[in-house]
Every structure is written in structure tokens, then in C-alpha cells.
Amino acid sequence: MQELENLKQNISNKFTNTFNESPEMISVAPGRINVIGEHTDYNLGFSMPAAINRWVIICFSYRNDNIIKISSESFGSTMEYHLGKHFEPSQSWMQYMQGAIEIYQRTEKIDRGFNAYIWGNVPLGSGVSSSAALEVATMALLRTAYKGNFDDVSLVINCQKIEHEYLGVKSGLLDQYASQLSKAGKLMSLDFQSLTHSYFDAAIGKYCWVLVNTKVKRELAGSKYSERVEETQAGLKTLNTLKSTIKKFRDITINDIDLLENKVIKKRIKHFVTENQRVIDTAKAFETNNLDLVGKLLLQSHESLKNDYEVSCVELDFLVEKSLQFDGFLGGRMMGGGFGGCTINLVEKTKLSQYESYILPAYKSRFNIEGEIYAFDMVDGASVEVF
Ligand code: ADP
Ligand code: MG
Fold first, then answer.
1. Tell me: the pLDDT tens digits for 338-382?
2. Which listed residue, 314, 334, 339, 372, has the most CB atoms within 10 A of its CB?
3. Can you tell me whether residue 369 is helix, strand or coil?
């Protein structure tokens, strides 16, 4: 892909300017979209992601000492990590690096240091998962550079451990899985219970996928995320005591929800059950080329995330509601953790620029925020090139 090759060449030059040598490897990992199946991964549901042409790129060379020196272009800072010594991260991106290095060494060896330069164009904190791109690019790089003996699914799980243990976010596997294992031009059907996936062509004819970025990111997103994890787990536990055949989230049927007395927990579980079904229904709708139905399911997903799961926000709701009045909009919903970030939308291709000049000014006049709109390609998952 020419766009990616050009970027790699650029970053390689930046690495050379910084470290006075050529890189020996370049690791690339993409951000992702998720068509449907939101907030289902950590409860072992289904989802339908794809990687997009926004990447984290890391250039690498070995050193002959025990020092790991990493520069981040986005943050304009450099960290120095001494193997075998305590490290105190002073910026968020360094926590990811520390996590990757230390988790990698739990099962594998890093026998000498390295220099690295990180660049990225995955928008940060926008629900397209720049953090997973960073984790996957780093873990894949370490695996190649230090001959780690683990498969892709273990790599993805290692990356999840970074979020859990070093960032304190109890996230599922969606983001890392999509970043590592996506295939160009395909959507992925992901099953988090069996940890398996398949690819399919989801033809969208005269339509295209579009992201609209609210440019809002709320601090409470992290705490609300943990709250939803806890609420749904409490729901499962209660259901299990009421009906012993319910052992896993996937054992819960829509009728079981009525067994729950706590209204809040009931809504959270309802989101899981209905959202999981929507992923199945969306796959079928694609199979039968019923794009109107795909659009409807996206809108239902948004309603569920807004009313039952309560992870949306006024900006996201505005974008979806306003889009409904646009002729050529088939459906859309908030994407990612929520409380800001992007919406994902199905819009008629020939009306894309019209949509842009409709939705962005409307958003600006309502919130006084310059939103952003992105079309994108679906690309291959992570890769490491060795020179
Ligand atoms: P999201 O994953 O939705 O984009 P997160 O808050 O989970 O948002 O992750 C964003 C964080 O990931 C950034 O604050 C930064 O620490 C790290 N990160 C992502 N991309 C880069 C990059 N290109 N360079 C350095 N750090 C990055
Ligand atoms: Mg993230």
C-alpha cells in the first residue's frame, strides 16, 4: 500500500535524524473501527471490527548496552529505560512502553537494549483505539526483535495486560485483536468466548463508512467503563443464583432479564443481550445485502448504548439525531467506549461532501467545537518489516 510505504519512509528518516543510524526494523499497527458489537468484548460477546488506514509506526535498532531509548513524536519526549532497573513513567505513552517491555519479559528475554522512534496518525482518544495500535506495534516489534515464542492471540492478550495492569483499564480484547488480525477490505466476525474470528466481504454498494469525531474526550470514560464491567458482572452473578444454568453472559436470554430486580443492572444486561443479537443480525443483513437493515441495527445499537448502557453523551447523540435528517444517511451510532470519540455512519458515497458540509457546521453551531470527518480504507493488521 503506497500510503503506508510513504509513511514508513518518512518515519525511517526521522529515526535516522534522531539516532544517527538507519532503523533495522519497522513495526506498524493500525487503529480500528467497529461496525457493531459495542461494550460486548469484555463479557465474551461478539463484535465486527476492521483495521483502518491510520497507524502507529515504530522504527527500531538494537543497542549494545542495557538501555532502551524511545522517542515519541506526538508527545515530543524521550524515555530511557534501563533493563533490570526500576522505571518511573512521567507521561502516559511511557506507561504503555513500560507495560510492553515488562510483560514481554515475563515469558521471553530481552538480552540487549534498543532505540525506537514512535509516530502515529490514529487520532488519540477518539474511539479508534490509538492505544491498542501502540501496544500491538510495540509487542509485535519485541516479538520479532527478541524472537518471542508466542502466537498472535497470545500477543493480543499480552497487549490487553498492558491496559489492565499499567493503565488500570479493564478492557476487553476487541481493539488489540482487530489491530493485529484484520485483513484488508474485510470485516471481521469476532467471538470473544471462543477467541476465534472469521473474515467476510461486507459489500456496501453505493454507500461508504464515515467517522465523525466529536473531538470530545471525557475523563469519566475510564471510571464509567469500570463501572459497566462491574455492573454487568454483578448482573451475571445474580442471574446465576436465580438460574444455575446461566454461567456465562452468552447463556443469558432476553427473557432472563426480567429475573433481575435492580433496574440499572437490568438495563446493562439488556444491552449486552440485545447488542450481541444485533451483531448476529447485522452479519445476516450483510449476507442478504440488506443495507437498510444494517442501518437500522446501527441506530438500534446507538439507542441501546444511550438509554440502556448509558455510555453516550450529548455530542454523540446530536450527531446521530442530526444525521437522521440527512437524505443519504442509512444509519450510524457511537463507536468505542463512549462519552466522546467518534460516530460511525453509513452514508451514500456521492453525498459524502454534502454530508460533511451538513453535519460539521451543525455540530459547530450547537457545541462550538470543530468536529472532524474521516473516510477510510480497511487495511491489513499489524506487521513488522526487518531490513
Ligand atoms: P484511544 O485508544 O481511544 O485512542 P486511549 O486514551 O485509550 O484512547 O489511548 C490514548 C493514549 O495512547 C495516548 O494518551 C498515548 O498515551 C497513547 N498513544 C496513542 N498513540 C500514540 C502515539 N502515536 N505516540 C505516543 N503515544 C500514543
Ligand atoms: Mg484505548
1. 999 999 999 999 999 999 999 999 999 999 999 999 999 999 999
2. 334
3. coil
Print the domain residue range for 162.
2-202+379-386
Residue 162 lies in a domain: yes
Ramachandran assignment for 84, one of left (phi > 0), alpha (psi -120 to 50 degrees), beta (any other): left
Which ligand is closest to the CA of 31, given by its number? 1
* Per-residue pLDDT at 1: 85
Residues in contact with ligand 1 (CB, 6 Å cut-off): 56, 72, 74-75, 92-93, 96, 118, 120, 122, 124-127, 129-131, 134, 336
Q: DSSP state, 24? A: S
Residue of the CA atom closest to atom 27 of ligand 1: 93
CATH of the domain at 129: 3.30.230.10
Give the atom of ligand 1 at the shortest distance from the alpha carbon of 73. 24
Tell me if 249 is assigned to some domain. Answer: no
Q: Judge contact between 257 and 269, C-beta under 8 A.
A: yes
CA-closest candidate to residue 271, choices 302, 243, 240 = 302
Contact 367, 5 (CB under 8 A): no
Cβ atoms of 338 and 316 within 8 Å: the answer is yes
Instruction: Let me know if 251 is a catalytic residue.
Output: no
Contacts of 237 (CB under 8 A, 6+ apart): none
Total domains in the chain come to: 1
The strand pairing partners of 217, in sequence order, are: 340
Top mutation candidate among 32, 124, 138, 179 for ligand 1, by most atoms within 8 Å of CB: 124
**Cα distance between residue 271 and residue 257, in whole Å:** 10
